[in-house]
Structures are given as C-alpha cells and as structure tokens.
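User: Second chain of the day. Same drill as before.
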Amino acid sequence: LQKQFKERKVKKKYLALVVGHLKNEGGTIETLIGRSPGDRRKQKVYLPYEPGVQDKRKAITKYKVLQRFKNYDLIEVEPKSGRKHQIRTHFSYLGCPIAGDKMYGFKNQLLPEGLKRQFLHASYLKITMPNGEKKPTVHTQEFRSELPEDLKEILNNSK
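Assistant: Same format as last time:
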C-alpha cells in the first residue's frame, strides 16, 4: 500500500471550503513547493525562475468548484502529487485559503460562524488492495467518506 502512495497510484479527493471565490470554475495548479524560509513549519510556492528553486518539488493540484456561497467556494480537490500541505499551500497561493486554516490563512480572514477547524475533508480514496496470495490478483477498492456533521452544518449556515 505504501508503495502505491509513493508511486502516485492512489487516487485521492478532498472537499474543501475556500475563502473568497476562485477565478475559474476548475483547473489545475502546477507549481514548485518547498519549505518556507520565513517559517520552517510551512510550505511555500516557488516559481520556476526564482533563485534557489533547484531543490523544490513539483506539485500538481486539480480542482473544481462544486458550489458558490456568498463569501466561500466549496471545491473538490484532487492532488496529483503528494507534497506536504500541498492543498493548503496552493489555495493560499491563489488568494483563497482553506476556511479555518490558521497556518496558511490570512490575517483577519473571514471565518464561517461555528467553524472550529479547517474545512478540508478527505472524501474519496481509490487503491489496489493486496489479496494475501502468492499470485496476487488486482482488486481495486474505493472508499468514500461523507462530510462530517459539523462541516455540513457550516455549509447550511453559509447559504
């Protein structure tokens, strides 16, 4: 299973509520990501022509807007690479950080009433499962996870 994650053979999707409105209904974010020099806990987007980018790693995130609210967009996100804090870094870079994200959000940013954590939820996983036999047969399994009640409540109150 670990090998599949490492080789990017696992399909993952997330639901996220971002602050503000994304310019496009969907798209692909492709940047370089590396540790932020200002805060070692954070990651930062680097552009190809910046100095010192040779050790940065390519990060690709696909997204589509599922629903627009007054001050937020509910999006489905599919990371194509698996970088630390990739989704949080990419949407902060676009100027639409994940709602409730204290690390990558902006100062005095809007916060949906009642939200006590970041609004980022792993909703889908597709992976090939081992069958425990010497001659393995391929068995792909999909897992879905509905939004938790507290996040559903936030959406109901954001309309």
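The CA atoms of residues 71 and 99 lie 10 Å apart.

User: Great, on to the next one.
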